[in-house]
Design goal:
Blueprint lengths: L1 H20 L4 E6 L6 E5 L4 H10 L7 E9 L7 E9 L4 E9 L5 E2 L8 H12 L3 E2 L28 E6 L4 E6 L14 H6 L10 E2 L10 E2 L4
Parallel strand pairs: 2-5, 6-7
Antiparallel strand pairs: 1-2, 3-4, 4-5, 8-9, 10-11
Length: about 220
């Protein structure tokens, strides 16, 4: 009990100190099960200042960039959640810096601070269509150059927009608009996320609950808990 109380007090001191130094940049701090790991929600317009602060401040020294992830929160005003993961080896601590973006909203690239982040930002651009200011080479990474759309957006159709077919006259493979040519088969091309908004009774969500959370953003089906 004493150790738990000490961890709670330590987290409160860190939280109050960070909020005091960054009152307009950080708007929420969440402690994880490990008292050395934190989730911080920050203003996307101040991303370079916030990351520089945690990288250079002696009490934190989060100087190792680990990963960048994105979540499409479909039908929300702030549609995308970006999460930057950093590690401080001297403190044996991890931090997750999270921010929210509207659809078509841009954000500064952190490639000037961490050169390896440029690859992760290219992946997010390729999959979600989020643009990064001052990126040295913002091109598609996982799809090819003529790919249409962003496949990890929840409104992206499962069938896609284009298909590759061999053109007999040209003797080469070319792109063409997708054609579902099987006449006697019914295709449902509506996104399942859009189908949820068409029903007033969201019965799907009644089978989910928030207990036994593996991560702050994770919801597990009740039948496997």
């Amino acid at each position: 009990m004493l150790n738990k109380q000490n961890r709670t007090n330590s987290f409160s001191l860190y939280r109050n100190y960070i909020l005091h130094l960054l009152p307009k940049d950080i708007f929420k701090i969440v402690n994880t099960q490990n008292s050395k790991n934190f989730n911080l929600y920050f203003n996307s317009n101040e991303i370079l200042y916030v990351i520089s602060f945690f990288m250079k401040h002696y009490l934190f020294r989060f100087r190792y960039f680990i990963d960048l992830s994105c979540v499409d929160l479909f039908n929300n005003l702030y549609r995308f959640q970006l999460t930057y993961f950093f590690v401080s080896i001297p403190l044996n601590s991890r931090i997750a810096l999270k921010t929210f973006l509207k659809d078509s909203q841009k954000i500064n690239s952190i490639s000037l601070l961490f050169a390896g982040a440029s690859w992760y930002e290219r992946e997010v651009w390729d999959m979600f269509g989020i643009q990064f200011f001052n990126h040295p080479d913002l091109r598609r990474l996982l799809t090819d150059y003529f790919f249409s759309g962003f496949p990890l957006r929840k409104d992206f159709p499962v069938t896609g927009y284009l298909e590759l077919r061999y053109h007999e006259n040209l003797k080469k493979i070319k792109y063409q608009p997708l054609k579902l040519i099987q006449e006697f088969r019914a295709f449902d091309t509506i996104s399942p996320w859009k189908q949820l908004t068409m029903h007033s009774n969201f019965s799907l969500y009644h089978t989910y609950k928030h207990s036994k959370i593996l991560h702050l953003d994770t919801i597990l089906p009740s039948n496997i808990i």
